[in-house]
Design brief:
Number of helices: 4
CATH topology of the largest domain: Glycoprotein, Type 4 Pilin
Number of strands: 10
Radius of gyration: 22 Å
Number of domains: 2
CATH superfamily of the largest domain: Glycoprotein, Type 4 Pilin
Helix content: 25-40%
Structural class: alpha+beta
Largest sheet: 4 strands, antiparallel
């Protein structure tokens, strides 16, 4: 159940990445560019109609252009999705409450945001642990941790011998924070609010995860 929910949430991000359009669209318009080998325009439309468990009609999806991605196994599709949102007023303020993904199929925006935040916390914690493992490997060989407060300097010490990938950013796009002496260190992600020193920070101190906010 959790895996299905996470797959739904992560897939829905792709739905939000396209432009949401109003009015009737023609699904027969020929898009600019050509799809990569093994991916047809019809298949692209089919995938968009059903992304994140949606059940959109063919005329709700207009593919505008197709271009190459970062490699042969990637493509960038610009599309317009016609859908609807429900707004609700809470405490005098209007908010987007739900998105329609099909006939009588509405999904909660709050649920989506919560699930996405939890998944980003889980993945960011995994990145922090990888850096912490690299620090521990460095300590075993050198007899101390890296004494710096500059994360870029830390990576210079660790990569690639102790850390194969130069991990720099968390899943919110914020650079990790490192405060280290020869005797110990603190490794930190600023969390969803992108502000270090707040309650949603994810912190590892000397190899011990100190905060597991929202992690499932």
């Amino acid at each position: 159940m959790l895996k299905r929910r996470l797959w739904f949430i992560l897939s829905l991000l792709a739905l939000f990445a396209v432009a949401l359009a109003c009015g009737t669209r023609t699904a027969t318009r020929v898009p600019q560019g050509a799809p990569p080998a093994g991916l047809s325009v019809a298949r692209i439309r089919e995938l968009l109609q059903t992304v994140a468990g949606a059940n959109l009609q063919k005329q709700q999806v207009e593919i505008k252009s197709i271009s190459e991605g970062s490699g042969s196994d990637n493509a960038v599709v610009e599309a317009r999705i016609e859908t609807a949102f429900r707004f609700a007023r809470t405490g005098g303020a209007w908010q987007v409450a739900e998105i329609r993904l099909g006939d009588r199929q509405w999904e909660s925006i709050e649920l989506i945001e919560t699930a996405v935040r939890h998944e980003k916390e889980r993945r960011t914690t995994g990145l922090l642990r990888r850096v912490a493992d690299g620090l521990e490997a460095y300590r075993r060989e050198k007899g101390q941790f890296v004494p710096t407060e500059d994360f870029a300097v830390l990576l210079d010490y660790l990569a690639p011998r102790y850390l194969s990938d130069p991990l720099r950013f968390d899943w919110w796009g914020t650079q990790f924070v490192y405060r280290g002496t020869a005797a110990g260190y603190q490794l930190l992600s600023a969390g969803a609010d992108r502000k270090a020193g707040t309650k949603d920070d994810l912190i590892i101190e000397n190899g011990v995860l100190r905060s597991e906010v929202g992690i499932r």
